[in-house]
Amino acid sequence: MKxxxxxxxxxxxxxxHCYENLCRKNSTTVLQSSTFVNHKAALAVDGDIRTTDxxxxxxxxxxxxxxFQVDLGKPYSINNVTLYYRKDGLGDKDWQPYxxxxxYLDVSDLPASQKTTAHRTRCYTxxxxxxDVLPHIIDIPCKHTARYVIVxxxxxxxxxxxxxxxxxxICEIEVSGCETGQYGDDCLPCQRCETCEINSGMCDCLxxxxxxxxxxxxxxxxxGCATGNWxxxxxxxxxxxxxxxxxxxxxxxxxxxxxxxxxxxxxxxxCSVNCTIGCTKDTGVCYSCVEGKFGEYCDKKCGIGCVSGxxxxxxxxxxxxxxxxxxxxVEHLKKANIETILFVVTGLLxxxxxxxxxxxxxxxxxxxxxxxxxEDPTSLQMISRVSCNETYYLNPIDLLxxxxxxxxxxxxxxxxxxxxxxxxxxxxxxxxxxxxxxxxKW
Length: 442
Fold this sequence. Notes:
By secondary structure, this protein is of the alpha+beta class. The protein is built from three helices and 20 strands. Strands 1, 2, 3, 4, 5, 6 and 7 form a seven-stranded antiparallel sheet that branches. The protein has a three-stranded antiparallel sheet with strand order 18-19-20, with no helix packed on it. A hairpin with a 5-residue loop joins strand 16 (323-324) and strand 17 (330-331). Mean pLDDT is 77; it is low at 1-16, 363-396 and 403-442. Residues 1-18 form the signal peptide.
């Protein structure tokens, strides 16, 4: 009897599929696009496969799109996905999986929150239409290596009234598979390649292989890589800075040149920001510089006195007025020197003005004095009358002396010995009673 039990157990193990339910791993998380009342996403991975309403996750009503996402935490080799959808009761008149129509199942390395689905791989599309319904339990083959499993729909079931919109009611989801690099029911290690087809163990052929054709034994692409990929299996991406994203399949180095802003062995170094049309791809020397810069890497400033820019290599330029040297870095006349010259010139002009004024005053027609003590018919005709017993100085020299010994007057009259017309200088002693007058040439 014991022998029979052992044989039956061995037979059961032989045919038992031991793919792991990856949804039950601690690293796995679930998320849905919205939540109706308290029907949270976690209800779909609790291990309970009952399909009545209370055991199911449920997205909210009146939504244009509804999705449910399983995040495995890292890429796994997936074999199949099993969905348990809501179905209340056992009869045909009970609640049926109406909202299950026209859903689709994708796998991806990017989450469902991404705006587009171009990065996804489609495993299944339900084309069922009203009034038909899908079975509420469905097992879908999905042999891919991916991190995210996504169930999504935009279908609005006509049976919904008064509510509307796309909805998902997933009661349980199971994602069966192995760690990457394993295959078969027992999840054995892949042979001669890092990843392989999960059932047969044949090395994976990536979509980045041209014609998606590979060597079955090692997974190497037969016809090379699609643009932007390299390595024997075309699983590595060319550097983003390679021109047209082309690189050598053997080592990933850029095949032609870098883009206009990078240089170096693998286009990892950036050209100077002062380069206008890029730089040489081996050394980074700029083809040309922005205005005001020069040098091989455009890292030097043109002279401050340059009219506009300078020669890229020598720095020579045309100078503005007042600047000199090949690079216009030296002012011909410094500002301080100009200020000194202006100060001197101004001083000289002021001095010249004073001197001119002095000589003009010496020749000005002046008021003259008259001896009021004694009227002398032979006296000179005076232009203006002031008392001679007052000190009246009009001669500029006497004014500068401050305290002259004798009064001085300047008259305008024909005086013997003086040229015509001329000014005469009348000197008169301080003794008024003398009244003696004399004329000296001025």
